[in-house]
Write a structure and sequence with these properties.
279 residues; 3 strands; elongated
Length: 279
């Protein structure tokens, strides 16, 4: 029985989805071109290691991405598993290294422009919108954390925000910036009373007097997570320590926060030149 026949039999099986079948059909054709019609029983760790090395070389001037290489290996291993059983699958893996995606943080002037536009008109909803996005940026809040705030979570006297939501249901306290404090106070004093319809603890209310949901925030500021990125990036640019930023963002691991250290390489170089004895 030829390898091509085994591939056809595997692709015709009911155990794979249509999208996987389409992707694997192309991947396995590539493997046959490289491996030939040799017996499937000869596919071992050495064969897959050689195949991986070949995939890693540029072909016709083009180099395959790590993700594509990993998928092609996965297709061959799936074929062996289907044909010979799980115990005969070569224990070789290729983990695709995905490129680090730097946070897409808006510049300060872009943030200020958006905030200015939200406050136009001065009505209850305009005041709410400005206060909401000011607080997201000022405190580095996730969308769910912002709309989940209650009235008592903003402490004007102590100038801090008690964030009760977040990943892992953790709690943290974040300083309340002067601008955000001013807009939140104006909203609570001049706008919220006209929005509330009864007993409601939520800080930010909809036009119907209910707690806002995250979709409202996304309409006001598309991709609101960018303002959380801006919060972290602007703190870093101002000289804040990564450990401090980690605490303010509520990251459980410093490695998550370290993505921001790649945003402002010039500033980090200046700090290094100023601080390191061998710079």
């Amino acid at each position: 029985m030829t390898l091509t026949h085994e591939i056809d039999r595997y692709l015709a099986s009911s155990g794979i989805s249509d999208s996987t079948r389409r992707a694997y059909a192309s991947d396995l054709r590539d493997f046959v071109e490289w491996y030939g019609e040799r017996p499937l029983e000869e596919i071992d760790v050495r064969v897959l290691a050689d195949y991986t090395a070949d995939l890693g070389r540029a072909r016709q001037g083009k180099k395959l991405s790590p993700t594509t290489i990993a998928r092609r290996l996965s297709a061959v291993r799936a074929l062996v598993r289907f044909t010979r059983g799980p115990a005969r699958v070569p224990e070789v893996t290729f983990k695709a290294r995905t490129a680090r995606r730097l946070p897409d943080a808006p510049k300060l002037d872009e943030v200020e422009q958006v905030l200015e536009s939200l406050g136009e008109g001065g009505g209850p909803l305009a005041l709410r919108n400005r206060a909401l996005v000011e607080l997201v940026y000022s405190a580095g809040l996730r969308s769910a954390e912002a709309v989940g705030l209650d009235l008592g979570d903003v402490d004007h006297e102590q100038e801090r925000v008690h964030v009760r939501l977040g990943k892992g249901a953790k709690e943290r306290v974040v300083p309340l910036g002067e601008e955000a404090a001013d807009w939140v106070a104006r909203y609570v004093r001049d706008a919220r009373p006209s929005l509330v319809r009864g007993p409601e603890t939520a800080l930010f209310l909809s036009a119907r007097g209910r707690r806002l949901d995250t979709s409202t925030l996304r309409r006001l500021a598309p991709h609101p997570h960018r303002y959380r990125h801006a919060f972290a990036t602007h703190l870093l640019e101002g000289g804040a320590d990564l450990r401090v930023i980690q605490e303010l963002l509520g990251h459980s691991s410093l490695s998550t926060t370290q993505a921001y250290s790649h945003v402002d390489g010039k500033r980090l170089r200046r700090v290094y030149d100023r601080a390191h004895p061998r710079s």
